[in-house]
Specification:
By secondary structure, this protein is an alpha/beta fold.
């Protein structure tokens, strides 16, 4: 679990690296400094350990003493989490209103006239909004951690002298661990032995180049360890870094919070840069705040001028500001994302970071590797051929020596070679399988690990007589570059241009059959151990080829077609041969007519690459940095939201460069650490379900924003018009705040609502302009009916209930009658506003009319009924007087039915007009 728990720490470090790097030796434990500056033997003595590792009993005792090897990401204190839940722009508006009301209604009036009801209601509103946000974020955090625990991370350690796989968090100081290409370093460890070990420390240092690690003692430049920088620790590997090449045995010297990364975690506070999700959310929030800053002053000015009471006008304008801003937006966002993560987990998709859900739904380009994603991830060695095209066991024999004795990450090709040799009879040892006979007869001497620039791997082996030979296998073209000879009929002959052309034709023919071709070469008696290296990969004898079949998944073609239909372009970024990749792509429906090779990419500037990338769906023979560059160009220059799905070491850089990194549970550690989303099944069909869920989550967020903002905007327009003509406020500040509170509570159920299939059919990104347009076009519809309601209440309902018009009451100086008149008016609009504002959610949640077959989620329906019942009951309730409400006459309810029915009809017409103009509702 350590990798997942340290991912946030690494992310914060990378975001803050440019402005504040840690001190040279910040976080280095005493054991680490000692181990770095002393011999491996001294380090073993210090930790009471041996080269054979700890016993199970010793490990258990140390685990009890030191605790689990976990690094908690920088966590917020309880006070900070409470502050984050209750302090935001919308809560600030509510608090300002509460202070104004506290002064006007409580502090500035004599005790008998004090009325704290507005302050109490606002306080409840703050508690509900902030409390729900606090609880929901706590739940979502717990749920996210629980989901992360589904992803396993283990390392190879020596216990009781045997290699076993143990969880990261069970490592203790003194453990001996084995590291190889693709591994995440699980703890700070001192190198005991290493072979061509290169480690990527960019998460800690910012340097992209891999750093070589050896067992040599670190020399201190000074009297003590204070001058020991991280870069000088060439014999220490640090938690959270990753192995690019090579192998090593290392002694764990520090775990958990005592590691270098653990020390940094203690010092970190604050947040790094904003994600795309944060930027989109901020843009929408700022739109709402700007709208509030325009409308609230206008309402204040009109009411101050027409009513003559500046304090009341200020209080009412502040209430309007509350009404126009969706106070529950943070709660709805958190709830929607948390619910989306839970739904995705049921679909075998684990979300490491909640905002990644929306990024997944917004993705319009998916970049992925070929092997395992589009193919069966079950490579079979179909043929082992000499350079004449005939089956030759000598080729398989040499390939086995390379695959079995190499100590790096054994990939599917290595496993396929080993499996085939284990079922092939030996031609040398009677009644024995080839693989077993080679295991018994050969020993490993040295190796040059694989890297993505050479695209080959070499192993030196020795037989019982001491004869050594170097066996190299790798990509065909890169192997031909280092071969000067070719084996023909058991003898080495010069590799002529004619033979080279014949070999390339042979390889092309195999590629055309969809077979991946690996070349095998050998060299007798290379240099001795310690001198052997990459330079020895020259003048080799080409022995033949291995042809592997990795058939396309039966589901791949359908999944690709579905993703394309959902607006996600699938682009294949592979390090494999272009012909093999093209064959697979053609079989599953990906356009392979234009292929861009890694060598071509290096010759293009970013603008030229962007132009080519837009038209290309297959990129082959790529290095990790070329993959990352392609992703960056598609994001920054072409404006795409790019996801990258990978599981290998060579995919990590591209996943980090993407908007949404996607990996699988079986991926190497560095790939899982780089990912935002982890699939429990390596299948595009699973990813497609995740994309739909991401869009559904965003769709419900958008429903809340568009319906609430448009409705609130309509209410503000109504208030502005009413303020010009009414002799009293159309609704008191307390009533406005209470109405807003009840409405927002109803909206809490929106994250559980369904979303139309048509809406999830294409990518969706944050669009503040769309929300603004929706508000301006549909908001005035509610204003129209508010104005009709005002007129009916002022000229019909209220005069009938009181027995006189407002003018007559004013002329007679009937203060009590005027108060009753105003109370009936305010109560009527209070109820009508809730009915229209709440029902419009159901009208605007879908392009279709609500019906038994197309209705909102049950939770939303229940809260709607309860909210309407509560608001309708309040004017007749025992607390009506405290709220400034009064019972409504029966004639009002007849009016309410007519207005609501007409409002629904006109909203449906406006909705159709909006869809006709913009192509969709949300």
């Amino acid at each position: 679990m350590l990798m997942l728990k340290t991912a946030t720490v690494l992310e914060v470090i990378s975001k803050r690296r440019r402005t504040a790097r840690p001190a040279a030796h910040a976080g280095l434990a005493k054991n680490t400094i000692f181990a770095a500056t002393h011999s491996a033997e001294d380090a073993l003595v210090l930790l009471d350990a041996t080269a054979d590792g700890l016993t199970a009993d010793q490990a258990a005792e140390r685990l009890d003493a030191t605790g689990p090897n976990t690094i908690e990401a920088p966590t917020k204190t309880l006070a900070r989490r409470i502050a984050d839940a209750f302090i935001d722009p919308f809560a600030g508006i509510l608090a300002a209103l509460a202070l104004v009301s506290l002064y006007i209604d409580v502090l500035a009036v004599p005790e008998p006239q004090r009325d704290p009801s507005t302050v109490i209601v606002i306080g409840i509103m703050l508690l509900v909004s902030g409390g729900m946000k606090f609880i929901q974020e706590a739940r979502s955090g717990n749920a996210a951690e629980a989901l992360k625990d589904l992803v396993s991370n283990t390392c190879t350690a020596l216990r009781d002298g045997e290699r076993i796989e143990i969880p990261f968090d069970e490592l203790v100081p003194g453990d001996m661990i084995r590291l190889s290409a693709g591994d995440m370093v699980p703890a700070d460890a001192r190198i005991i032995t290493a072979r061509d070990l290169f480690v990527i420390e960019s998460a800690l240092t910012g340097e992209s180049e891999a750093v070589e690690k050896t067992a040599a003692v670190t020399v201190i430049e000074g009297a003590d360890g204070s001058a020991l920088p991280l870069s000088a620790c060439k014999n220490i590997v640090f938690t959270g870094t990753s192995v690019q090449n090579g192998t090593a045995m290392a002694l764990v010297v520090a775990t958990g919070s005592n590691t270098y990364l653990g020390g940094i975690a203690k010092m970190l506070n604050g947040r790094g840069g904003k994600s795309a999700f944060d930027r989109g959310f901020s843009s929408v929030s700022m739109l709402l705040v700007r709208l509030m800053l325009v409308m609230a002053p206008a309402v204040f000015a009109i009411n101050a001028a027409t009513k003559g009471n500046v304090i009341d006008a200020l209080l009412f304008a502040t209430s309007v500001a509350v009404g126009i801003t969706p106070q529950m937006l943070p709660v709805i966002v958190t709830t929607s994302l948390s619910q989306g993560a839970k739904d995705l987990a049921r679909r075998q998709v684990i979300v490491k970071e909640l905002p990644a859900i929306q990024n997944l739904g917004a993705m319009d380009v998916l970049c992925c590797d070929k092997t395992g994603t589009l193919t069966e991830d079950r490579i079979v060695l179909e043929r082992y051929l000499n350079t004449d095209g005939n089956e030759d066991t000598r080729v398989l024999r040499h390939a086995f020596l390379n695959s079995f004795f190499q100590t790096g990450l054994k990939n599917l090709i290595d496993l396929a070679v080993i499996d085939r040799a284990d079922v092939t009879l030996s031609t040398v040892v009677p009644d024995s399988m080839l693989g077993q006979s080679l295991r018994d007869r050969y020993t490993k001497v040295d190796e040059v690990p694989f890297d993505f620039s050479r695209r080959r791997l070499s192993v030196v082996v020795a037989d019982a007589q001491g004869k050594t030979q170097m066996v190299t296998k790798g990509a065909a073209e890169e192997m031909l570059e280092v071969c000067s000879y070719v084996e023909v009929d058991g003898t080495a002959q010069p590799l002529t241009d004619e033979k080279l052309a014949q070999i390339r034709k042979q390889v092309a023919g195999l590629n055309a059959e969809g077979l991946r071709v690996i070349a095998v070469a050998q060299k007798t008696n290379p240099r001795t151990v310690g001198e052997f290296g990459i330079a020895d990969e020259c003048d080799m004898v080409l022995m033949g080829f291995l042809a592997f079949l990795d058939p396309p998944k039966a589901s791949a073609a359908g999944a690709v077609a579905t993703l394309e239909a959902k607006g996600v372009a699938v682009k294949v970024l592979t390090g494999d041969n272009d012909r093999v990749a093209a064959t697979v792509c053609e079989q599953i429906g990906i356009d392979a007519s234009n292929v861009l090779l890694g060598s071509e990419i290096d010759a293009l500037d970013d603008a030229e690459l962007a132009e080519r990338a837009e038209q290309t769906h297959l990129f082959a023979k790529l290095s990790p940095l070329q993959k990352a560059r392609l992703v960056r160009v598609m994001r920054e220059l072409l404006g795409h939201t790019v996801g990258f799905m990978g599981d290998g070491i060579n995919d990590a850089a591209a996943m980090r460069a993407s908007d949404c990194g996607i990996s699988v549970d079986s991926a190497v550690d560095i790939a899982k650490e780089s990912a935002d989303i982890i699939l429990l099944q390596k299948d595009l069909g699973v990813l497609e379900r995740g994309i739909i869920e991401g869009r559904r989550t965003y769709g419900n967020l958008l429903k809340y924003l568009k319906t609430t903002v448009s409705s609130n905007f309509g209410n503000v327009l109504s208030v502005t018009v009413a303020s010009l003509f009414l002799p009293f406020l159309p609704m008191s500040a307390l009533q406005l705040v209470l109405l807003s509170l009840i409405y927002e509570i109803v909206c809490i159920a929106l994250p559980w609502d369904t979303v139309d299939d048509a809406w999830t059919a294409r990518p969706r990104a944050w669009d503040a302009a769309s929300i603004k347009g929706f508000m301006l076009e549909l908001g005035p519809v509610s204003s129209l009916f508010d104005i009709v309601t005002f007129a009916a209440l002022f000229f019909v309902v209220c005069p009938a209930a009181v027995g006189a018009s407002w003018a007559e009451l004013a002329a007679a100086g009937n203060v009590a009658g005027m108060a009753t008149f105003a109370a009936i008016f305010q109560s009527g609009w209070f109820v009508e506003s809730m009915w229209s504002q709440t029902l419009v959610i159901h009208m605007l949640r879908s392009p279709r009319l609500p019906s038994p077959r197309d209705h909102a989620a049950p939770a939303l329906c229940v809260l709607t009924v309860l909210g309407l019942a509560l608001v309708t009951w309040l004017p007749a309730s025992p607390i009506a007087d405290a709220l400034g409400l009064t019972p409504l006459p029966l004639s009002f309810f007849a009016l309410l039915i007519g207005i609501v029915a007409a409002y629904i009809a006109l909203t449906q017409l406006a909705k159709r007009r909006y869809i006709a103009r913009h192509g969709e509702l949300l």
